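Second attempt. The first submission of Protein YAE1 had a stray character pasted in from the spreadsheet, which I only caught after the job came back as garbage. Lesson logged: always re-copy from the clean sequence file. Corrected sequence (121 aa) follows.
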Amino acid sequence: MSDIWDDEEVRETPSEITRVKRDHSQAGYLAGVTKAKDESLQEGFNAGYPIGGQLGLSIGRIFGYLQGKGLVEEEKQARKELSSTRIFDRQYWTTDAAPTYEGVHPLVKQWENKIDVMKRE
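This time the job returned cleanly.
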């Protein structure tokens, strides 16, 4: 057995070199994927938060108006038509989660129009 301070050249076997390369490659890949996911997640949150906030506020106003007026059947209908399943239907969003509509979500706009009519009656 040689001393670690000897000037002998340390030789790794080809299998050790392959293993070290693979381990470093995997570690680098995982670090890259993790960083990309973190950045994408934050970007998606930053882009989606204002849209989601506005949707929630608008839908909440609709529900609040209907509840405040005691319009139980209309509120049930609004809850059905403004459910998250319908609001986030593929027809309203691109594959990148951007809205396909301009301005107000079409389902929200329909209910805002209905409420405007109710207010005039």
